[in-house]
Specification:
Strand content: under 5%
Helix content: over 70%
Number of helices: 4
Largest sheet: none
Radius of gyration: 20 Å
Order of helices and strands: HHHH
Distance between the termini: 61 Å
Number of domains: 1
Amino acid sequence: MNPVSSKKPVSKGTSSSNLGYPVIEKLIDTEDFSKVNQTVSACYDLLERMLKNKTGGLKKQKAIRASLKAYDLTIDLIRELLKTKYELVKKRQETKK
């Protein structure tokens, strides 16, 4: 039995600031997407080349298409989160006036 896998996660207290997805929250707050853009672009390009070159069999081609779709959905989600952030900031500024 692996002692690491049998341990339960330790909770350091749950405040509203550390709930959710801290990496995504930091990306949205800082809007520094350079590393994400580089990584996603490189992976996306590789997958597109694999698809174009018909690498692997049908099962692998299906997995490649699913991966490309996942990247597209992730980018759409980040755009939607940014849009929501801007709307919230705008509403906050309007209520302060």
